[in-house]
Amino acid sequence: MITFKNVSKAYKNHHALSDINFAVQPGSIVGLFGPNGAGKTTLINALLGMIKVEGDIEVLGLEPFSQRHKLMESVAYIADVATLPRWITAEKVVELFEGVYPKFNREKALRLIATTSVPLNKAVKHLSKGMIAQLHLSCILAIEVPLLVLDEPTLGLDILYRKQFYDMLITEFYDDDRCIIVTSHQIDELEQILNNVVILSQGKMVLHETMDNIAEKYVAVKVDDSNLEAARKLNPLTESKGLGRTTCIYHGHSHETLAPYGPLSIPSLSDIFVATV
Ligand SMILES: Nc1ncnc2c1ncn2[C@@H]1O[C@H](COP(=O)(O)OP(=O)(O)OP(=O)(O)O)[C@@H](O)[C@H]1O
């Protein structure tokens, strides 16, 4: 669905993206992570044809920059859920989405809104932030496009709404023919729903793996302090100190090689993030 070949973007002397290569298949839910300034928004802007870049990008068979108008018929892009015009009613928000997105399914949106506590006749400014998020989310999930791009969608929402957001994304939007790209700084919350991970650092792609490969290639070992010197000889990516034990993250060693140094586990995505960035 998406192919990036040798994609770079420079602003004056600063490389916001450097030689990015990756491909995304239908059915992918891709987590796009990176520290502040890593290039995530630039990558999304390139993907949506909002900026001109060096290299080749193909999204749904189109070249985004020159064919953006056509591409936008098949893409929904949402940054920051819970930012809707405050002066219109919830019902008018549904109309607004219908006007903006050709593939908006009004009946689905109304059905999803009916499962929330959002009253259709109330102005957005009279709804709580959580209700606004539910309203926005119900509308987003009713856009029937193959590609959904979410840039920090749950910013400012509490943990319950964030969880509900991701649950609904899977149950109400996802299927094998669609693709979701989502950026967030809350890495571990997304871990359960992703099947692909891209990590950027200083404009470079430092990791692009399926979640299955990550579970195979990365191992966390709780090493007793008495074993630490020996464990260090295997070049852990990171070490984090605990009481009497140090957790070392390794890449590319077999479980047999690492087992003598302590109990093994799959590292969390945030541990891998820290280790790679
Ligand atoms: N229009 C622009 N002009 C000049 N520099 C820019 C422009 N847009 C982005 N940059 C620079 O490119 C780099 C990548 O920025 P980008 O916004 O893509 O990062 P990000 O990963 O989305 O960061 P954050 O997590 O903070 O939103 C940054 O150093 C930024 O200052």
Q: What do we call the CATH topology of the largest domain?
A: Rossmann fold
In terms of DSSP E residues, the strand content is 25-35%
Whole-number tally of structural domains: 2
Count of alpha/pi helices: 11
Arrangement of strands in the largest sheet? 5-6-7-3-8-9
Bound molecules: adenosine-5'-triphosphate
The CATH architecture name of the largest domain reads 3-Layer(aba) Sandwich
Bin the helical content. Answer: 25-40%
Radius of gyration over all CA atoms, rounded: 21 Å
**Structural class label:** alpha/beta
Biggest sheet statistics: 6 strands, mixed
Reading the helices and strands in chain order gives EEEHEHEHHHEHEHEEHEHEEHEH
Distance between the termini: 27 Å
Given this structure, which CATH class of the largest domain is correct? Alpha Beta
What is the global morphology?
globular
> What's the overall average pLDDT, rounded?
91
β-strand number: 13
CATH superfamily of the largest domain: P-loop containing nucleotide triphosphate hydrolases
Unreliable stretches (pLDDT < 50, length at least 5) are none
